[in-house]
Design goal:
By secondary structure, the chain is of the alpha+beta class. The protein folds into two domains: about 130 residues, ABC-type transport auxiliary lipoprotein component (Rossmann fold, 3-Layer(aba) Sandwich), CATH 3.40.50.10610; about 160 residues, Porin (Beta Barrel). It contains six helices and 14 strands. Strand 4 and strand 5 form a beta hairpin. Helix 2 packs across helix 3. About 25% of the residues are buried.
Length: about 300
Amino acid sequence: MKKALIIVILSMVPAYIFSQTFITLNKALSECAAEIKEHFIKDSRALIFIENEAVTRELSSLLVSQRHLAIVERDEKVLKAIESEQNYQMTGNVSDATATSIGKQLGAQLIIIGSIESNGELFNINIRVVDIEKAQRVMDKWWNNVRIEPSKTARLHTVGASVGSTFYAPFLIGTVRGTFSPFDNFFIEAGMDVGFFHGSNNKEDSDYLNSYGLNIDSYFSLYPFIHLNFFLPFKNSGGLYIGAGAGYMYSKYEFNDGIAEANIFALDVIAGANLFDFLDVSYTMRTDFMNFFKGINHKVSVGYVYRFKQK
């Protein structure tokens, strides 16, 4: 009953995390850039008016990387054009008419206007795109609950080591591991568990061994694994994660009258926290595929990780 309850609880955690999450600036503006691309032919000149420098830089970078639009740089010529329009500043408060007039002076075919509203620690972003030749909007869209911070906070690149236990077999576990984030809020974890000692305090197992006059003198195991985890970063450092994966375990038992070896595939469900970017605490529910409920064990571990800083 307890095992079934644990599984139900773990299955509910991802839904809760996703319901509490936010959209990163990179994801919101990537969607924006893809939609803008659909409305204009290649090499159209675009001018950007957004009141936040971080948003401006991110969107400009994404549009340039598409190799589809030419971005009009905000140089002295741009500033003079703005000053000529009744001293308007480069903010989201620029009207469509004013933006169109400035765009024409600078030879732009489209103008991207952005405004930002605070939503607690997050922000709501509105992006409007005006086709200067047609003098009409072709896009007017909101992205809500956006986190305007470098997207690196949502990626976890680490290497580290930890110690833990299943309080049974293996009783002591040393782990080396690394993580790589191919995109925001997810990371791939690969590593190796090395296990020592068999905590044969399970009565059923002890009775079984005793019936054959056997005692476990030593135990050793290797478990290479790979996991895919969802990552929810904290505001300043670290974050929570939950995921699943699999591994292949090699176990070696030395009895009082011989040696036995075992090889099994196993399924992992993992939940944990990266604290302060250097301390990792995790729980892993591990089971073989053939005997899910009886073959389950629980690994708790704590360790040090080095988090690579993204530039």
